[in-house]
Amino acid sequence: MPQYLAAQRIPILELAAKLGLSIKGRTASCYNLSAHKNGSDNNPSLTFYPATDSYYCFSCRVSGDAIDLVRKMKGFSFKQAVNFLMTMASSSPRPTASSQSYSEVSLPSPRSKEVYRCLFEHSTSPSVTSPGGQYLTGRKISLDVAHNCHVREMQSPSAAWQQLEMQFTATELQAAGLKSSKGNFLFYYHQLLFFYMQDGRPQYVIARDIRKAQSLLKGDDKKQHTPKELALMSVKPPVPYMVELLDGSPEKVMLCEGHIDTLSAIQLGNKAIGVAGATAFRREWINLFRKGTNVTIAFDNDEAGRRNAAELQAQFRMQGIKANAMIPAQVNDINEILQTIA
Fold it and tell me: What pLDDT, on a 0 to 100 scale, did the predictor assign at position 305?
């Protein structure tokens, strides 16, 4: 594996702490204070995603992976950042079975997938009058497309959590990644759900907070301090989003960054699968694509999207699969293209 790929997979929370950031749960005060109003971040906006080893600030919008974090905090070049991370990795002790903790990221167990199935059953498809439906149609996404892509909505997160607690133990819910660091329902404020399915069964789920969008529709500009999207705690997806579209061995596939962009690409007539962020695609997933497939990598038009799309293009080609990076021009992402056309 190339050094830069290994460096990207350094545990992001461990790295952030080593760089001097004060971590609380999965958040910290942002290091990029010059881009913040009044030069402060009193309500920590920098959020870390262990499942993808990435980060995003919901105030100044700085984002990236482990390499980006080192470059921006230490002023290093790309090569210096990779060398720093590789030195850090070589000096860190390997965990033993007895020292491993719940904080380490793992694939969901069969029992965890039963938890996701239960959550799926206690949620509903977004409708034209529901908050989730209004959010999606506001992004010009058809509710039929959302339904076919396993987008669900919790009308009452507390009721859904109560059902889960009735059917599963606290240990099982924690292992499934649905308990926050404080022991509460992780998705309490994130009612729009994106289920990753395979063979007709839920394999994973990521949730989106749509309250800010709803507040803006009502004229309320009150700032929200929760992450826009949440992945499961310490559990990583076993497959990409909408992986079942690969079952028919399509000639052309679009690989998108983010769930909304994946839905947008599908609505535009593409066979599209998605990953949660620019660094979230795992190398072993290349084996899901057949040799004759032509892959278009359509990540966001930002530094992380452009760099990771180029790296993925090279990885696919090394495996004998045609791939081309297509970064949207003059727009930020695929959803903006959909909104422009609509």
Answer: 86
pTM: predicted TM-score of the whole model, two decimal places: 0.74
Tens-place pLDDT, residues 138-171: 999 999 999 999 999 999 999 999 999 999 999 9
Q: Does residue 227 sit in helix, strand or coil?
A: coil
3-state secondary structure of 153: strand
Q: Where does residue 2 rank: exposed (0-12), middle (13-18), buried (19+ CB within 10 A)?
A: exposed
* Token pair belonging to 306: 């452009």
Name the token pair of 129.
């009058």
237, part of any domain: no
Residue 248 Cα distances to 208, 209, 253, angstroms: 29, 33, 11
Give the C-alpha separation, 188 to 31, whole Å: 28
Give me the domain span that covers residue 283: 243-341
Rounded-to-integer distance, Cα 258 and Cα 305, Å:
11
For residue 145, give the 3-state DSSP assignment.
Answer: helix
Residue ranges in the chain whose pLDDT is less than 50: 93-103, 216-225
CATH code at 290? 3.40.1360.10
Crossing angle between the packed helical segments 66-74 and 78-91, to the nearest 10 degrees: 110
